ABC transporter, ATP-binding protein
Amino acid sequence: MAVLSVDDLTVAYGDHTVFSNLSFTINSGDFLVVVGENGVGKTTLVKALLGLIKPKEGTINIPKDTRLGYVPQFRNLDEEYPLSIRDFVALNSRQSRWPWLTKKERHRLDRIIRITDLTKIAGRPLGLASGGEKQRAYLAQALLTNPRLLILDESTASLDNEMKYSLLDLVARFQEDGLSVMFITHDWDLAQRYGTRYLHMQADGYTAGSINELAAIVKGEEEC
Ligand SMILES: Nc1ncnc2c1ncn2[C@@H]1O[C@H](COP(=O)(O)OP(=O)(O)OP(=O)(O)O)[C@@H](O)[C@H]1O
């Protein structure tokens, strides 16, 4: 079952067309890796999916029951950033009794914090957390609303290998429970390790398919 489908999509900034006639589908449980050179339009695609840019042509179909979660690329936060990790994660709860959480919301928050291995440091200011901890906090925040599709934009870029694997292992656990994932990355190794499908964006078009086919592309890129 499709959780998102993109049909003949063209996105431009003014006269500058970033990509055109892009079509692909993400089905339930897919782990789609989006790869491509710098500047080819990966982040622009994410912005279009999140509704931040209006496409010039084409359609983006997101069924009503697809809730999106978004994990941005890690950015350095000021050490003085005042919120604790727990409060930062809680920002994404619906807070129907704002600023207090209902019992149900608190229960979910505690569960997500536990699963993302943040319980011991949940009271620590987010600004003082390590890069990997911050990224887990972003992930926890995105997972709090129980999304059906999680979009990760270069979310592992500033992490060492061990941290990358532990973050994506965590995501993969949710994927096993039916979460669909769209992961934008420059890392071919991670793409092949975790992906089930790929979308390779290029200046003159794109290819998409099953992850096994990505090996031939990687080989081609390495030979260039
Ligand atoms: N707000 C904007 N206005 C005009 N042009 C933009 C804007 N944002 C991005 N661009 C241009 O659109 C193109 C695609 O940028 P985008 O950030 O989507 O690429 P990317 O594939 O995510 O690159 P990277 O891998 O380096 O993050 C680039 O040429 C960029 O300069």
